[in-house]
Amino acid sequence: MDLHAYPVPYPSRLAKAALSLLAFTLLLAACFAGTAKASAVTDLLIINKKTNTLGYFSGGKLVKTFRVATGKTKELTPEGRFPIVVKVKNRPYYKEHIPGGDPANPLGDRWLGLKVNGTMGTTYAIHGNNNESSIGKYVSAGCIRMHNDDIRWLYPRIATQTMVIITSSGLDMQSIAVKSGYPLGQTLVAGSFVKDGETIIPQSPFLIEQSRVFVPLRETVTLLGGSVTINAVSGDIVMKLGGRTVTHQPLGDTANVDGKSVAMLPSRNVGGRLYLPLSSLAPLFGIVPAWNPQAKAVEL
Asked: Average pLDDT of 39-44?
């Protein structure tokens, strides 16, 4: 049993295409949000319905996998990218008026609510159960069930806005993560900027990849006194700084600086945030930064 009082219709192909476009737009917009917790950026949950397993990724690596239960039919548990927007302990089972924390509560005592197809964390969720033998099976009305001990372990480690990918794939967890743009094998570190002698702590971590440093695009350009917008038609990032206008297609290996194409290392997508290679600041903006690996600081 799950929270659903009534089945939720599975979207048509056209609706799914529209939702996919919306999801991409939201992820792109998240590059400039600047408010999500760092853990939500560095963490990822993947649910593979083909194997009924959940993978917990943090800091660029697969930390742990769990057995889960999903929908009775493939359509009941929607596939796509969905953020966790609600965390609740001892959620009541309203449909049958069972109090939260009651051993008979089919939701268990932990609820990680997902924003799915217009619902706001109250309909679809990763949660516990009152029937441990159901885990690993296709039995739910759409939610993802976990063993109670497993979700109690996971719950405190997951922040709201952590992205959850639900799929049916023959790939292993790491391959799904890489295909989804997660920086597997890379290192996310809490760092700082130093500008005019002042130390500034960004909300987003730095990305280290094979000794190369990547910095969060929006926070870096804003700190330097520039502005960042998105071209709604092309999806290009438009950055204006120091009299220069720079456009860049996310994940691309070039940028346009005042009409001239400039080569650069490809930008990176980390948890929906766009990162620029530190080495690109000189050709793009005429700013030569210095990286202090001991202090994990970028000197501007």
From this structure: 74
b/e for 26-39, b at 16 or more Cβ within 10 A?
Answer: ebbebbbeeebeeb
Tens of pLDDT, residues 283-296? 999 999 999 999 99
Average pLDDT over residues 262-283: 91
Query: Is residue 119 classed as helix, strand or coil in its secondary structure?
Result: coil
pLDDT band at 94 (very low <50, low <70, confident <90, very high): very high
User: Which candidate in 31, 127, 147, 248 is catalytic?
Assistant: 127
Q: Which two tokens stand for residue 55?
A: 């993978």
Which residues fall within 8 angstroms of residue 138, CB to CB, at 6 or more apart? 52, 69, 70, 71, 72, 73
Q: How far is the first Cα of the chain from the last one, in angstroms, to the nearest whole number?
A: 56
143 belongs to the catalytic site: yes
Single out the catalytic residue among 4, 97, 143, 248.
143
Q: How many CB atoms lie within 10 A of CB 130?
A: 18
Exposure of 25 in the CB half-sphere (CA atoms within 13 A) = 10
Catalytic status, residue 97: no
Q: How many C-beta neighbours within 10 Å does residue 20 have?
A: 12
How buried is 229 (Cβ within 10 angstroms: 0-12 exposed, 13-18 middle, 19+ buried)? exposed
Report CA-CA distances (Å) from 229 to 32, 76, 248, 281, 287.
9, 37, 11, 17, 20
d(CA 284, CA 221): 11
Residue length of the chain: 300
Which tens digit of pLDDT belongs to each residue from 96-137? Answer: 999 999 999 999 999 999 999 999 999 999 999 999 999 999
